[in-house]
Amino acid sequence: MMSCKINHFSHGGFIEFDKGSFDNWCVFVTRANGDRFAPTDVQYFSRLKNLAKIYGARTIYNDFVVIYNRTGAEVDKNVLAVISALSRHYEDDSLEMEIWLNVLYAGMVAEENKENAVLKKRIKRLGMFQLLIENAEPEDAAVFSKGKKWKELDEIMKASGF
Q1: What is the C-alpha separation between 111 and 137, in angstroms, rounded?
Q2: Per-residue DSSP letters for the chain?
Q3: Mean pLDDT per 10-residue interval, the chain, length 162 residues
Q4: Do residues 5 and 24 lie in contact, with contact meaning Cβ atoms separated by under 8 Å?
Q5: What is the pLDDT of residue 1?
Q6: Which of 5, 9, 31, 135 could make an SS bond with 35 (beta carbons 3.0 to 4.6 A apart)?
Q7: Alpha carbon 73 to chain centroid distance?
Q8: Whether 61 contacts 132, CB under 8 Å
Q9: 130: which residues sit within 8 A by CB, 6+ positions away?
Q10: By the 8 A CB rule, do 9 and 95 touch?
Q11: Closest C-alpha to 133, from 59, 78, 79
């Protein structure tokens, strides 16, 4: 798979899928200055945790759930438009929120396409739920599911309502 652009941002940067160390579903962000990186869960969880202090954890979580509910295995331009609209409510941080919501969306699309992934996009929702609703530290929410059996995680998710 060649790199596949998902969305362009107003500052000139963009987000894309490309080959990573595991598969072709690695999410990369390219900044306006050309710097390209694969955001880690800890990286965007840390920023979202800080932004939650300004805009409210529940607000960010609810916006994430709007995107989550519309996410399937294919990138949908309508979901990208919803992300753009939701991001405008974050005032001075609208571009950053648009980027992180795009990263979360792309991550969920990638999870929906991963071979042998049982929990699919729900794994991202668990991380966001722990981070924003249960007030977990970004480092803890990012690694919580590692090494756990899918059935154990499934039970936790069901108990949390998803």
Answers
A1: 23
A2: ---EEEEE-TTS-EEEEE--SS-S-EEEEE-TTS-EE---HHHHHHHHHHHHHHH-HHHHHHHHHHHHHH--SS--HHHHHHHHHHHGGGGGGHHHHHHHHHHHHHHHHHHHHSTT-SSTTHHHHHHHIIIIIS---HHHHHHTTTT--HHHHHHHHHHTT-
A3: 88 95 92 96 98 98 98 98 98 98 98 94 98 98 97 98 96
A4: no
A5: 59
A6: 31
A7: 14
A8: yes
A9: 136, 140, 141, 144
A10: yes
A11: 59
Closest CA to 160 of 120, 136, 126: 126
Strand-pair category, 36-37 with 14-18: unpaired
In the prediction, which pLDDT does 22 show? 82
Place of tokens 């900044």: 31
- For 12, the token pair is 């000139």
- The structure tokens 């990638």 sit at 110
Cα distances from 56 to residues 15, 61, 86, 128, in angstroms, run 26, 9, 14, 13
